Amino acid sequence: MPDQRFQPFLESPLQHFNLAAEAQPRRADGRIWSNELANLAYVVLRGDTAEEGFARVVAEVTGLALPTSPKVMSTAPQGVLVWTSPDEWLLITSRVRARQWMAALDGRFAEEGLFAQTVDSSGGLTSALLAGPQHITVLRHLGVYDFETIQPGQAVSTVLGKATVQILKLEDDAVFLVFRRSFADYLWRLLRRAAQPYGFAVCQLEARAGHPLLGLLAEPRHDAVPA
Hints:
Elements (H helix, E strand, L loop, with lengths): L18 H4 L9 E6 L3 E6 L7 H9 L10 E4 L2 E7 L2 E6 L1 H17 L5 E4 L4 E7 L3 H8 L12 E6 L2 E9 L2 E7 L3 H12 L4 E3 L25
Parallel strand pairs: 1-11
Antiparallel strand pairs: 1-7, 2-5, 2-6, 3-4, 4-5, 7-10, 8-9, 9-10
Helix pairs in contact: 2-3, 4-5
């Protein structure tokens, strides 16, 4: 009799594009380079900065300082913490670490009587790298934000086409786009079409030690499923 046990598996929302087969080493040739950072963890953190102890608990558990103003994000080798509203943040890290952090945060919130919570949104979001000397020009084709004003270390939320996107600027010649899984197919096709005049290529993503997002590629993307 066949095994009837539930056997979950993890799949990227862009899996059907088979980007791995198309990917090539990134080169400084003037093209637009992009690829998906698949299967990272996205945790929505809600709380009140006016409550004594909230920011301290977040920093003690994650090692990331809690941003308290728009456009600000905290970065470290273990991930990124992005300000999204006065009482909400987005935490991006590996899925294994996210589960550990969520359990620790919720436990500490309860112990200290804090009105705060974590929500795992990993199944609803994904990220993509957009790099190259013309990457800002490509963004201008798709949205009305003053993209050239975004400085390294900043994060903004805007609309590209019809999709809401968070843009994380971690380095000079690239941005990381965070968007909903339901818009992944639409946004990927939109980016490719807008980048076509400048040359578009799918780049191989290599883990970069110490990098807040690329460094996560070297870590397990999910917990092992028991046999």
